[in-house]
Amino acid sequence: MVVVETTSEGATSVGKPIINLSSVTTVGLDLAKHVSQVHGVDALGRVVVAKPIRRNKLLEFFASLPRCLVGLEACGSAHHWARELIKLGHDARMMPPAYVKPYIRRQKNDASDAAAICEAVTRPSMRFVGVRSLENQAALMRHKAREMLVSQRTQLLNGLRGHLTEVGVIAAQGPRHARELAELIEACDETVPFEVCEALAPLVVQLRNLDQAIARLDRIIAKLAQKDETARRLRAFLASDRSPPRQWRRPFRIRPASPARASSPPFSG
Questions:
Q1: Model confidence at 8, in pLDDT bands (50, 70, 90)?
Q2: Which domain holds residue 227?
């Protein structure tokens, strides 16, 4: 840990704890799961504080700072911490990690990453990532959860198809035909041995649970889309753009006349 304190004469003393952090104007925050790294500088670019801070002490540290510019990499939990820093009055800005990488001056570690973030956030040409609201993140999580459930449902259907193929029961391609196999297992059809039905019954139960969960998420997403102005405008635009496709026609071209026809008179007699 490196702690630098600026004295009244302008000199620096290394190793002494910082009492006054009022000169900090820009902070680079390298986030981690348990211990994060901070790198703070003053208006002249001199290092004021550079140290690791545990998760439970991070907001307490930023609450002791004056309002300043805080840079973060757009990574896991970055939106959460950016919202918390904005509540404290700081100007939190997130950057893509690829845009921060060129500012690393030495071997990559937490301290050098925090210093690079602190320098990159002050660049005039830097492009920032917008801070998402909690509602926006929850909406994205619903879509991601639905994608995961759909993937699991596809895996179950493929598993039922593969297992039943081993006992000579096949179905055509497509999810509709795979569901027919599940219905055969539920009904203990005579074409499927009883032992196989008993073994694959848990997969069918899980398939029905996934269908219900996906249908529930579809209803929630549809209700949220009806309340969102942007979603309503997008749906109206897509509905108005559903015009029948035009039939393609070969473009008409005027062919140049051959030399023989060009030299002959247009009419004779």
A1: very low
A2: 134-240
Beta bridge partners of 70: 27, 92
User: pTM of the full predicted structure?
Assistant: 0.76
Q: In the predicted model, is pLDDT for residue 188 greater than 70?
A: yes
What is d(CA 46, CA 42) in angstroms, rounded to the nearest whole number? 6
Residues 96 and 129 sit within 8 Å (Cβ to Cβ)? yes
Residues near 224 by Cβ (< 8 Å), separated by ≥ 6?
139, 142, 231
* Residue 23: CATH number of its domain: 3.30.420.140
Q: Which tokens in the block code for residue 101? A: 């990488």
CB 153 within 8 A of CB 210: yes
- Give the tens place of pLDDT for each residue, 232-261: 888 888 887 665 666 656 665 666 666 655
pLDDT at 11 over 50: no
Which of 65, 89, 120 terminates a domain? The answer is 120
8 shares its domain with 112 = yes
Report how far apart, in Å, the C-alpha atoms of 91 and of each of 41, 49, 86, 173 are: 15, 18, 6, 55
Do residue 114 and residue 7 come from a single domain? yes
Backbone φ and ψ of 17, nearest 5°:
-65, 150
Asked if residue 142 and residue 230 are part of one domain, the reply reads yes
Same domain, 98 and 142: no
DSSP type of residue 152? H
Close Cβ partners of 191 (under 8 Å, ≥ 6 residues apart): 169, 184
Residue 26's φ and ψ, nearest 5 degrees, are -140, 135
